[in-house]
Prior knowledge:
The complex is a heterotrimer of chains A (about 280), B (about 450) and C (about 290).
Chain A: H1 2-34, H2 39-42, H3 57-65, H4 68-99, H5 105-115, H6 120-133, H7 140-164, H8 168-176, H9 181-192, H10 194-210, H11 214-217, H12 226-231, H13 241-261, H14 263-269
Chain B: H1 2-17, E1 27-34, H2 37-44, H3 47-52, E2 56-63, H4 65-77, E3 85-88, H5 92-98, H6 119-124, E4 126-127, E5 130-131, E6 134-139, E7 141-146, H7 147-152, H8 163-173, E8 181-184, H9 194-204, H10 221-237, H11 247-255, E9 259-265, H12 268-272, E10 284-288, E11 303-308, H13 316-326, H14 329-339, H15 350-354, H16 356-361, H17 365-374, H18 398-413, H19 419-436
Parallel strand pairs in B: 1-2, 1-3, 8-9
Antiparallel strand pairs in B: 3-11, 4-5, 6-11, 7-9, 7-10
Chain C: H1 4-35, E1 38-39, E2 49-50, H2 54-61, H3 65-95, H4 101-109, H5 116-127, H6 134-141, H7 149-152, H8 154-179, H9 183-191, H10 196-223, H11 228-233, H12 245-255, H13 259-288
Antiparallel strand pairs in C: 1-2
Helix pairs in contact in C: 1-13, 2-13, 3-8, 3-10, 5-8, 8-10, 10-13, 12-13
Amino acid sequence: MARAASTRRKAATTLIAWTVGLLIFFPIFWTVLTSFKPEAQAIAMPPRLWNFDWTLENYTAVQERSNYFRHFWNSVIISVGSTLIGLIIAIPAAWSMAFVPGRGTRNILMWMLSTKMLPAVGVLVPIYLLARDTGLLDSRILLVGVLTMINLPIIVWMLYTYFREIPGEILEAARMDGATLRSEILYVLTPMAVPGIASTLLLNVILAWNEAFWTLNLTAARSAPLTAFIASYSSPEGLFYAKLSAASTMAIAPILILGWFSQKQLVRGLTFGAVK
Amino acid sequence: MNRTMRALLGATALCAAGGIASAQENVTLTIATVNNGDMIRMQGLTQDFTAQHPNITLEWVTLEENVLRQRVTTDIATQGGQYDILTIGNYEVPIWAAQNWLVPLNDMPESFEPDDLLEPVADALSVDGTLYASPFYAESAMVMYRTDLAEAASVTIPDSPTWTDIRTAAEAMTDQANGVYGICLRGKAGWGENMAFLTAMANSYGARWFDMEWNPQFDSPEWTEAATDYVDMMTQFGPPGASNNGFNENLSLFQQGQCGIWIDATVAASFVTNPTDSTVADSVGFAQFPNKEGVDNHGNWLWTWSLAIPASSQNQDAAKEFIAWATSRGYSELVAQEQGWAAAPPGTRRSLYDSAEYQEAAPFAAMTLTAIESANTSQSSVQETPYSGGQFVAIPEFQGIGTAVGQQFSAALAGQGDVQQALNNAQQLTQREISRAGYPK
Amino acid sequence: MSTKASRTAARLMISPAVLLLLGWMIVPLAMTLYFSFLRYNLLMPGMESWAGFENYRYFFTDPAFWPAMRNTLVLVGGVLMITTIGGILVALLLDQPFWGQNIVRLLVLAPFFVMPTVSALVWKNMFMNPVNGIFAYLARVLGLQPYDFLTQAPLASIIGIVSWQWLPFASLILLTALQSLNSEQMEAAEMDGAGPLSRFWFITLPHLARAITVVILIQTIFLLSIFAEILVTTNGGPGTASTNLTFLVYMQSLLQFDVGLGSAGGVVAIILANIVAIFLMRMIGKNLDA
């Protein structure tokens, strides 16, 4: 009796959960689907869910027009590079905040977070002038640097909250055994924090991948990532839904697949200290 | 590392270049362009150019219009030097040329034939008789309408209609139950969107932006009348969501058969008559931009996407070669040969309009030429003006002012507040900005 | 507990991050501050001159200033409300046993990976367009007049789009927190005859407090500077109905390249952001302390 009731309940939950999940996912599904339609059918009313002529012409057109792989590669370098450098700078900082907290620790942390609120549009001109004078315009180095700075506060914070959950006694014990500070961080702390670091890394790669203001404004031909690739497909003259969809699919697919595959790692550390 | 090397090389080249043409050196041209159909086509045809100039490599930066404008303006104003060729409009050219930011296009290769350019277009890209950019394509504005709907509603649109004609026809063609809207006009806020149209429309009502002392004129009866008619027509016979419709949105509406009349840029003509994209390709009629009875002015809309070389470019000779190729008569012939005459970039050269093949392939050719030739950008209103420019005011502050004013009219169109309120706000904010900028200068 | 030596080491180790961020903050900030007192338009080089507080005066008296302030708050508040409440509901749902949990979780997570520009373009063109959009089609199927989202309710539409992007983030954090809830406590409460609602109210919600704090804090940081979504969909209009502070600064600085005015706006935006940050800390920061 109870089992039947719980099965029925499970079935009902399944139905609701799937409905919610599919509704949330629908815009992405629709974009991918539209990317396989001929332009005229992409805009047709009523919308065509299956009765259209499947085609790859949009992908071919996009590939002919732009160097997708170069944009893709730039995106990879910029997002992964900025995240790795960010981690290297942030791990020691987060360590000292978590294990040797001073009076100002929380204020420093909050101040760091507040730098993220710096409105990009207001400081574009100063940054552009600096980049010009250092000869770094349209270089991946510049973008890696800028995105490192933009995401650093988030990285520090995530690591800090993660490190704080690690009991200090373990480090004390390592210290008793004569471990130096360096080996303490490298061999004791870091391995314990791997899930937190992994999730920090993933989240920041995603954020850097999708950053669309600096990556668009500081690049031209050589270092432009996928955000610039999208900007060449949004609202041109004439019908564009299908080609836009194809370009969008190509821009989000890599990060979506990465996110899906590493979902467990991403979620495990994505607590910001919210879970005790 | 690489980057530093390149910068060093660049600097050396700059020092050494002097007057020596380095035609055989390998150069890379970075070209910033807008993602419009004609430019995309050009990108596809560049093999022809690189075959003739094996030492030149082309790098394309294709961006959506607003992003492009923001990118190239930042770059040229800060002398960033990231591009060798810019795609800009006749709004930018005179302003930038006056700052010596552009390379004058004299001593171009012979194939360039500057005398073949249509006069109003060349004028719009010249300062004191010197050409600073070469037109890739050019447009004025005209009326496009559905001949089948007009016939069914038994209205006729004359070749040179008045706004009353347009209104009558729009009313007769409207059939909202079947998703047919009598008139589609730009409503999306932006100096190059709704304000381009509204400024041209106001011109044809005899209005102007500023009087000779740079006082804004939104309180004038001409502006009031133009804006009132615009909002009236659009709310009664226009499509839903018109305040978000720009050129593109209206183009798709028209191609889908949902507009009776569409008044917009002449380049649209080749899109709406192209049977692969347009469901109404066979039944499109053309007419001149309307005017108000008794006002001899057809809006004076003139826009040209053109190629220019920033003074900061280090490959100016190669850039000239490319511009000569891309905007020459030969390029039109290449397009014609590859994709048919109707696809040739319109509005720039007399030879194109003299060609019998083009006239036959493009039923809109004659009307486009009339529209462009009648556009007078140095005197856009029947009243005296302190500024030049047709559907815009050619001062650097106009992008900001025009967009802010555009938001006001787009709000009125969306039903937030009435026309009078929009005009009052427009008057105030224009006054504010223009006096901040220090006009009259 | 900590020795003097480790304190010094700690200072040393925190300093790269602090110095870099300080540099990143101060150099552009100093330039911005300096520019904000200049009459400086990029399009008119050589005309720079000292302007005093004129730029600030212009910025504050801009008729769009107060609407922009209001819109910024409504935008942030609206998205926070939807994503927090929606996030709790989705998290509660995903916490139940059902078939295909993993797949549904992937579906819910997906919008977080989509670039803001792409999501704005997709929503605007393929969903909210009053003629060709899916919503318009659905309305017509139901015999209704298509609703013109971006004109009639521009700010609400943008809130909707942004909420769609951030709902997965909120749901996931809340779900992780939910899963750490002690089930014995729950069962005990059930034994005592507490109904599902009161269990939620007295046990689940307090347990989620920290997670909610985190969601609010992080999202606020990102939401204050929403820009791409507005640029793509409404251009801040109609009128100023969807202009937020970032967009106002954009209109003034990048559109007319008035660096002086834009910088003044930037400085104001930074100050406001910091006020919000302090406010947030005061209000909810205590939740974050152990």
